[in-house]
Amino acid sequence: MSLLIDGYNLLHVTDIFGKGNGPGGFQRSREALLRFLAASIEPAHRKQTTIVFDANHAPPGLPDTTTQEEMLVLYARDYPDADTLIEELIEKHDAPRSLLVVSSDHRIQRAARRRRAKFSDSDLWYAKLWQQRVSQRAGQNRRTPEKPIGKLSTAEIDYWVHEFGADALTDEDSPKRPTETDETRLESPFPPGYGEDLLS
Q: Counting CB atoms within 10 angstroms of each CB, which of 34, 104, 156, 197 has the fewest?
């Protein structure tokens, strides 16, 4: 599914803010949002993600179109506002029913509804994305190591022997199962002549 995000609309409902104040505050907040999205959206979906920002706070010299972690980032320089560019993108989308538009702006939601695209308020979509990220991390923490399958290599044996404080083993000094010759050389734990009468 393609994803079209109203950048500043989403930024305003999050707690994502760049460090420091002043003229570069918007830029730092925008970069923080983009990093969050790149870390939260599945890699396979990033190529289908477009984020649109107003050009009023865009850094000088930045092109109208950039990419971050395969996500397309657009600045509405030649448009009155980002909403106008987002409306145009919805109108031109070749498969609008496979499009999800993220914005709480009713104007944008009406444009999505006209093309039968899906839409979500920014705060609801952000909460769902955040919950998915928390659940994913919790699942990773609960995951237990899988039981090894097959024989351990010499390097793996050496590692575990070292972990338990013994000397590393090699093929030459690893314990081997006794052979028939070895068994014949074992000393009997019984006194000499014990049980010989059973053989006669």
A: 197
Q: Tell me what pLDDT residue 189 has.
A: 58
pTM equals: 0.66
How far apart are the C-alpha atoms of 162 and 156, rounded to whole Å?
A: 10
Give DSSP secondary structure letters for 94-109. Answer: S-GGGEEEE---HHHH
Query: Going by DSSP bridges, is the β-strand pair 49-54/71-76 parallel, antiparallel, or unpaired?
Result: parallel
3-class DSSP assignment, residue 74: strand
Structural domain spans, the chain: 2-142
Look at the block and give the residue holding tokens 């320089």. 77
Average pLDDT, the chain: 79
CB contact set of 72 (below 8 Å; sequence gap of 6+): 49, 50, 51, 65
> Tell me: the pLDDT tens digits for 45-103?
999 999 999 887 666 677 789 999 999 999 998 899 999 999 999 999 999 999 999 99
Report the pLDDT value the prediction gives residue 184, as an integer from 0 to 100: 46
Q: Which two tokens stand for residue 11?
A: 């930024």
Q: Determine the Cα–Cα distance for residues 34 and 108; give it in Å rounded to an integer.
A: 21
Is residue 74 packed enough to be buried (19+ CB in 10 Å), middle (13-18) or exposed (0-12)? Answer: buried
196 phi/psi in degrees, rounded to 5: -65, -30
Write the single-letter amino acid at 106: H
